[in-house]
Every structure is written in structure tokens, then in C-alpha cells.
């Protein structure tokens, strides 16, 4: 059971959050527990959706964004996010099992994506204190400064969702995957 209240429906959420949750439902076909729980603060929900929406218009493909989310969820041990992004990775980004496992270990079976995921993992592990070699490696893989900024922004967004889900102990409403399942 979640340690922070999760409104049971859109109608049970604060009025200011209801239009935001309706938009989530329209886009996803459902409103996952994370969104309903965060709706306790319409400002936080708006901020999360705004950043997520802006990054979706960025230059990193959806598959790379999911790969980063998987790596960060594994690093932070967030089972809610790991479950959600495993589901999204398989069903939306069309990542296979081998790719998902590689992502969870900070890599990828795709060489360019591997550089982005590895860099994202280094950013998270070092709390942003990456070395020149880390930046050089991601640049050599073909990422420019704008894409590097997007990678860092994705790390920040995923760290936030990992932390809020761990604080709340959000009930997982996806097929459950645990960080300790990574072999």
C-alpha cells in the first residue's frame, strides 16, 4: 500500500489536477498510479508532465529515452519505474529482453545507444561529476551538446520519478520487475 494517498480515480483527485490526468488517460488509455499519486500536488504533476512532454519533443528517440529510464531505475532500485519502463520498453519502444537487460546494466546492444545509456548511468552514479573521458566517449558516439543536455535532463527526470515512487512506495500497476532480478 502506498505511503502517500493515491486518488482512486480522476474525479477523486484535486480539481486542478483533473484535466492533467484526463490528458494522461487520453494519451495512455489509463492513468497509472504514479500520475494519480503525484496529482496530490497539481503543481508537481504539471511540472512532471511539462518536462516529460518537452523532452519527448527532443532529439533522443523514444527507444533511447526508455533505455535511459531502465538504467536509472536499476541504479536507484526503483521497482515501480523498472516495472513501468520494462512494460513501456517492450510494448512501445519495441525493445527485446536482451536489450532491456543490457539497459538495466548500463549498456545497450546498439553501439550508439550504449554510449548514451552508459553516459546516463555515469551521470547518475557520480551525481553529475563525470570526467572528461565520459563526455568524450558520448561525443565520439555521435551525440552533440544538445543531445548530451537531453541525456542529463532524462537522468534528472527519472531520478525524480524513482525518488517519489520510493518515498511513496507506490503500488505497482504494471507487471512487476524487481531491481534485484537483473542477472
What key phrases describe this protein's structure?
183 residues; mainly alpha; Single alpha-helices involved in coiled-coils or other helix-helix interfaces; AhpD-like
Structure, explained:
- The protein is an all-alpha fold.
- The protein has 2 domains: about 10-55, Single alpha-helices involved in coiled-coils or other helix-helix interfaces (Up-down Bundle), CATH 1.20.5; about 60-165, AhpD-like (Up-down Bundle).
- Helix content is about 65%, strand content about 0%.
- It is built from 9 helices and no strands.
- α7 (about 110-125) crosses α9 (about 145-170).
- The longest helix has 24 residues, at about 145-170.
- The radius of gyration is 16 Å and the shape is globular.
- The two termini are about 30 Å apart.
- It holds the Pfam family CMD.
- It comes from Mesorhizobium erdmanii.
Précis, in short:
The chain has helices spanning 18-28, 33-38, 42-56, 62-76, 79-91, 97-104, 111-126, 132-140, 145-168. It is an all-alpha fold and 183 residues long.
Low-confidence stretches: none
Q: Using DSSP, what is the number of strands?
A: 0
Radius of gyration: 16 Å
Order of helices and strands: HHHHHHHHH
Give the N-to-C terminal Cα separation.
Answer: 28 Å
Number of spatially distinct domains: 2
Helix amount: 55-70%
CATH architecture of the largest domain: Up-down Bundle
CATH H-level superfamily of the largest domain? AhpD-like
Class of secondary structure makeup: mainly alpha
Compute the average pLDDT: 96
Share in β-strands: under 5%
By CATH, the topology of the largest domain is AhpD-like
CATH C-level class of the largest domain: Mainly Alpha
**Number of H/I helices:** 9
Biggest sheet record: none
Indicate the overall shape. Answer: globular
Amino acid at each position: 500500500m502506498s505511503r502517500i494517498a493515491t486518488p482512486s480515480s480522476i474525479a477523486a483527485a484535486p480539481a486542478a489536477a483533473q484535466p492533467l490526468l484526463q490528458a494522461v488517460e487520453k494519451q495512455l488509455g489509463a492513468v497509472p498510479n504514479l500520475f494519480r499519486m503525484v496529482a496530490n500536488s497539481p503543481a508537481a504533476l504539471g511540472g512532471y508532465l511539462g518536462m516529460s512532454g518537452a523532452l519527448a519533443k527532443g532529439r533522443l528517440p523514444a527507444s533511447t529515452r526508455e533505455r535511459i529510464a531502465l538504467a536509472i531505475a536499476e541504479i536507484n532500485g526503483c521497482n515501480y519505474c523498472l516495472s513501468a519502463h520494462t512494460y513501456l520498453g517492450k510494448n512501445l519502444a519495441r525493445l527485446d529482453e536482451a536489450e532491456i537487460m543490457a539497459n538495466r546494466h548500463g549498456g545497450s546492444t546498439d553501439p550508439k545507444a550504449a554510449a548514451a545509456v552508459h553516459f546516463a548511468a555515469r551521470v547518475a552514479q557520480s551525481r553529475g561529476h563525470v570526467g572528461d573521458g565520459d563526455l568524450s566517449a558520448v561525443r565520439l558516439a555521435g551525440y552533440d551538446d544538445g543531445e548530451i543536455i537531453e541525456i542529463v535532463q532524462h537522468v534528472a527526470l527519472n531520478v525524480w520519478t524513482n525518488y517519489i515512487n520510493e518515498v511513496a512506495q507506490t503500488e505497482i500497476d504494471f507487471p512487476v520487475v524487481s531491481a534485484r532480478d537483473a542477472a
